Amino acid sequence: MPRFFVGTAFKPGDILQLPDDVTRHVHVLRLQAGDSIVLFNGEGGEYSAELIEVERRSSTVKIREFRDIEVELPYRLTLAQGIASGDKMDWLIEKAVELGASSFVPLTTTRSVVRLSGERAQRRHAHWQGIVRAACEQCGRNRMPDIASVREIATWLGALPREAEEGELRLLLSPRANISFSALPATAPTGRVLLLIGPEGGFSSAEEAAATSHGFSAVGLGPRVLRTETAGIAVLAALAARWGGW
Length: 246
Hints:
- This protein has two domains: 3-67, CATH 2.40.240.20; 77-243, 3-Layer(aba) Sandwich (Alpha/beta knot).
- The chain has helices at residues 20-28, 88-98, 118-139, 153-159, 205-213, 228-243, and strands spanning 3-5, 15-17, 36-40, 46-54, 59-67, 77-82, 103-108, 146-147, 151-152, 169-173, 179-180, 193-197, 217-220.
- Strands 6, 7, 8, 9, 10, 11, 12 and 13 form an eight-stranded parallel beta sheet that branches. A five-stranded mixed beta sheet has the order 1-3-4-5-2.
- By secondary structure, it is an alpha/beta fold.
- Helix 2 runs parallel beside helix 3 and helix 2 packs parallel to helix 6.
């Protein structure tokens, strides 16, 4: 059944005019009055709804029933990612949403190929928010992951407490790590997981040192060096298998 995000509050019995972008999607799918759809507003759960009017430039639904459905991971994971070039970042965010990441922090680093600031950074941030929304619609998530504004890695690290909070796990992926993935806890931590991954050229030694001084443990993924857009997805999938996220 088609699922759409509508960023407003509603309840069963409400008559709701759908946003313009959702109306365009309704037309693309050739939906008609009387068809059933699912709506969610990102705050948890979803709503069954019936299209009662589909016009050229507007569409209206009646909210039928609330369903308390959650498909979130049993742990909270923030992916702090050095910005990848081209469409790699788009692909990475989409797949990370599907795999259950709770939030994203796009980072500018010493070796970043892409440099974003000002209006360009704002446009890219809005673009990524659209990818998050579309991925949630597709994969069945009813809570919208947060995506932070672009920031320098030093600024982001500086805003973190020096020591990990109780139950929190901070991981830094590095080909120079002495700790293997298999050494991670067998059960999910009670606090959030911060996963820090570099861009195409990886982190500089100074950036890795700064991360470890802020409580990050450097972890390796074996003898093969993975691309930046592969590494995070591999870890998310492996942690889901390890900690009951599937």
